[in-house]
Amino acid sequence: MSKAYWVATYRSISNPDAFAAYAKLSGPAITTAGGRILARGMPSQVYEAGLEQRTVLIEFDSVEQAKAAHDSPAYQEAMALLGDGAVRDIRIVEGL
């Protein structure tokens, strides 16, 4: 079974307080579900059409585990705190 990677990019964060509340719950929800946060923050360098936006990379043992983490009650509770405080894109990609 291949590893899976959850890639989140934040186009904007309009409510820093909501983002902080989300971050307080989302990290533990993800790690409890088996995720390993590999990188997070602003890019060190961008190329081509790259955008200067916060990016988070999380490794899971499988696509199914990544999807279950996202859909878990604990992560959904964090999402409720974020509300419309950020515009972001989340992708789950299967490893090679």
From TrEMBL:
SUPFAM superfamilies reported for this sequence: Dimeric alpha+beta barrel
Top-level taxon of the source organism: Bacteria
Alphabetized InterPro entries for the sequence: Dimeric_a/b-barrel, DUF1330
Domain DUF1330, residue spans: 3-96
Protein name: Uncharacterized protein (DUF1330 family)
Source organism of this protein record: Neorhizobium alkalisoli
